[in-house]
Amino acid sequence: MSHQRTLVTLIEDVGNAVAERIESETAISKNLRTWMVDFGLDAASNPEKTVCNLAAFNFLLKATLYRAYRKEGATLQVLSKDANIGAKFTEAWKETGDEAFRENPLDTLVDESNQDLFEPLLEARSVIEEHQTPTDGIGEIFEAIVEQPVRRKCGQFRTPPFVGRFMAEWAITSGDDVVLDPGIGAGVLTAQMYDVKTAASEKSRVEEMWGVDISELAIVMASTGLKLENGGGSPNFRHHDFMNTLVEGSNVRIDGQNTIVVPTVDAIVSNPPYSRSAALEEKRNQYNNIVDAEAGVSMWGQAPLFAYFFVHSAQFLSDGGRLAFITSSRFFDTVYGEDLRNFLLDRFAIRAFLFLELEEAVFEGTDVTPCITLLEKGSTNTDQNTAFVRVDEWPDNSAELIEAIENGKLGETNFGFVNQIRQGGLDPDQNWRRYVDHAEIDAVSGLTQFSELATIKRGIATGKNDYFCLTQAEVEEWGLNEEHLAKILRRTAGFNELEITTANWEAWRDRGDEVWLLYCYEDGEAIETVDDDALEAYHQYGREVGADESYLASNRNPWYAVDERDPPDIIATYMSKDGFRFIRNRASIRTLNNLHNILLPGFEDDEIDALLAYLNSSVADEITKRSGRKYSRGLHKIEPNELKDVPVIDTRDLPNTDIERLATVYRALRDAIRAGGEDIDSTTDMLNETVRDVLDLGTEPE
């Protein structure tokens, strides 16, 4: 067992002892309870146990930091079990000015009555001190004792050291740069920044390091790691909400919030907290007012926290200063991304976007595709290029990435792909991710926005699928009349064909799948007066199991009348790794909201099949992926509003010969897949070549 693993076990043992003492003697204070909720511990399987582990971890780090200052020459007494250790930490704060020593809510679990429980941790400080990279070791311990749901709720994803090093090397141009991390977390990026600074100049000082974090524990982790790795002095790390931080020389905030002041800096490097939009609601109005007052930005209502960090960080960057952020790439795919892209174009020279599409997830346990954004503050030069980089494999030397960005490299590389786009040509209304896709797709012309020829909607949302979706056996058991039911496709898992027939539906029915949907409509109107005993009995059962209490049901009248939908002509999958599928619906069935519905009024049968040839081609799949969202490990997703914007062939406008060619090749692929023979690949190739020929794209590239 490694020393690191042994230390985690010791922390958990001390945490257990503290938890037992709390249960038998005291209660957790109201202040600490509030901290636990703010920290996301309500997402932990055992919040009380987790907070006790964190108290032990916090004690260990402070004790380690205390000894580091003593070794440096601070006039601090040796920590011992007989001393009031909390008082010693307060003395250390007064002498060193290091914010990590300030009392925080976790310290309330340590007092003279139970200080003996923490004594084993004093002997274990050497494990952290002797770690090759203490900052990484501290981050690993934190992740070991805090469950991922807690870290996800707070938007905390530790930056891999190789990514942090690259960001620091690009952003820091001089050893005496003053730098800022507005969300320091475990301190991985701050340690990398200081390492880059000292490599550039022996005159670098740790006092040039500034950091802000809303978590007191983050200040403790970052301060301890940086002290152990880089020695003398005290960094300027502050416990505060970064969005309420003022830049030196600015006016006092008119809302009266308590603030701290940070000077303008030469470089900002950060992995800002992601924090999903729902977690921001209490502060969203305040943050909206801040970015509006500072930059005139009206942020869309679903923007995550990191979008606000982009805008607020700009206030702290000196002219010519550099900013490197690693965030989710979702701001390329979303409405709030348009607000952010407009801001970046207006305020920065946008040097590069790097999309990290590595085989292993950059942020462990997530499907997020990270994006590194590199910005330089100052007058924007619209003729200057922005590098769009797709990183499929991280290079052995990150200098390769910097060289590709700075020297205008184009095309395929040993690490991925680089494109250079003139900043003045970037349209904030478009999805910029397209610039790292295959350029040949841009040659497609003569296409029409999908919404111009189709009605596109999600399938039906019920609010409680296990009540509204029934098997044939359940229908017979309740004696339900088919007049009050609709045939449905519950899911496409295991179904790989391109056409659904009545025979498919009957096979699913006979094997016991949920193939019926409770669908209480008559002549296009919801049935409000029920005169069918079996139906009334099933409604009563629904009330007993709470089917009428879901958010959707409680907003329907009557509650059991799900959304009315006509059977779609085409059913589309919304998430895929191997390509989106567009399936002909010849069984007149409906779907749930896990599938998209496409209705084509005014289309002839051959025109629909011809359109399906295009939709299931490699050309259309590339375009659809570009319009949708991309997650890590090759997972793509598209929402109905995004699908509406996908360019497609309006097959009604094609010559009859092309309609026939496309319809024929679609049916050939449909039949090949249904037969499951050896012709699928060759028929797929034939379909792709036919589509390319109709679009005048030439031969499929190898």
From TrEMBL:
Q: What keywords appear on the UniProt entry?
A: Methyltransferase, Restriction system, S-adenosyl-L-methionine, Transferase
InterPro entries in UniProt: DNA_methylase_A-5 (IPR003356), DNA_methylase_N6_adenine_CS (IPR002052), M_Eco57I_C (IPR054520), N4_N6_ade-DNA_methylase (IPR050953), SAM-dependent_MTases_sf (IPR029063)
* Residue ranges occupied by any Type II methyltransferase M.Eco57I C-terminal domain in the UniProt entry: 440-669
- Which Gene Ontology terms describe the biological processes this protein takes part in? DNA restriction-modification system; methylation
- Superkingdom: Archaea
A single Gene Ontology MF term assigned here is: site-specific DNA-methyltransferase (adenine-specific) activity
Q: Could you tell me which residue ranges the DNA methylase adenine-specific domain spans?
A: 136-390
Q: Which Pfam families match?
A: M_Eco57I_C, N6_Mtase
Q: What is this protein called?
A: N-6 DNA methylase
Q: Which species is this UniProt entry from?
A: Halopenitus salinus
